[in-house]
Amino acid sequence: MRQEEMVTPGEVLGKATEVKAGKGTYVAKHNGFVYASLTGLLRTVSPPPESPDQRPTVEVTGHKAHGAVPEPGSVVIARITKVMARMASADIMCVGPKSVREKFTGTIRQQDVRATEIDKVDMHLSFRPGDIVRALVLSLGDARAYFLSTAKNELGVVSAESAAGGTMVPISWMEMQCPLTGQIEQRKVAKNES
User: Fold this and answer.
1) How far apart are CA 76 and CA 108, in angstroms?
2) Which residues pair with 99 in a beta bridge?
3) pLDDT at 69
4) Can you give the pLDDT at residue 1?
5) 119 in Cβ contact with 150 (< 8 Å)
6) Could you write out the three-class secondary structure of the chain?
7) Within a 10 A sphere around the Cβ of 161, how many other Cβ atoms?
8) Distance CA 93, CA 87 (A)
C-alpha cells in the first residue's frame, strides 16, 4: 500500500502493463499509460495472493471532504465573472489560504459592495470581469452561490488588469491606475493590510 497522495485529472499513475486501472482512473489506448480521471487521493491496492493477475490496482477516490468550503464569516478570494446593474458574479478560488477544489460561485449585491453611500454604488465602476477580489462570505445564497460582501476597507479588488493588459496599481480606495498607459479606472479597491 503506497502512501496516499493527491493527484489531479490527467496525471500519469503508471503503465497498464504494471498496474491495473481502478475507479477514478483510465487507460489511454495510444500509449498504454494509466491516468487519473479525477482529483483525489491515489491508493494502490495489492492483488489477493491467489489472483492470477499480480498487478496492483491504482484507484483515485474523490476528495469531497478535503477541499476548502466557503462558510459564512470566511474571507475568500474570487474572480469576477460578470457585472450587472445590481450585482456581480464571481468564482470563488480560495477560502482563506486554501484553494477550493470544486466550483463555488459568489454574488456581490449592490448593497454589499461598500459600507457607505450604498445607494450610490455603481457596479460597473466597482468591479470588472477578471478582477480578483477579497470578500467576506455573508451567507449561502441559492443554487450553490454564496452572498459575498466587500463592505470593509480591507475587502474589494486586490488585483485587476487594465485594458492595455497591465496589472493595475491601486492609487486610492476607489481608483486603480494602469502602469503602462497611466489611465485611471474606478474600482472598489481593497485596502492593503501592510
Assistant:
1) 12
2) 94
3) 78
4) 42
5) no
6) CCCCEEECCCCEEEECCCCEECCCEEECCCCCEEEECCCEEEEEECCCCCCCCCCCEEEEEECCCCCCCCCCCCEEEEEEEEECCCEEEEEEEEECCEEEEEEEEEEEEHHHCCCCCHHHCCHHHHCCCCCEEEEEEEEECCCCEEEEECCCCCCEEEECECCCCCECEEEECCEEECCCCCCEEECCECCCCC
7) 15
8) 19
Grid cell, residue 87, equals 450585482
Q: CA-to-CA distance for 94 and 148, rounded, in angstroms?
A: 13
Q: What is the radius of gyration, based on Cα positions, of the chain?
A: 23
Give the pairing type, strands 75-83 and 57-62: unpaired
Taking only the tens of pLDDT, the chain with its 194 residues reads: 445 688 877 889 999 999 999 988 888 888 999 998 877 888 898 988 898 999 999 998 875 555 677 888 999 999 999 999 999 999 999 998 888 877 889 999 999 999 998 989 999 999 999 999 999 999 887 666 899 999 999 999 999 999 888 999 999 999 999 999 999 999 999 997 55
Per-residue cell: 2: 503506497
**pLDDT (0 to 100) of residue 144:** 64
Please give the grid coordinates belonging to residue 168.
Answer: 493595475
Name the grid cell of 110.
449592490
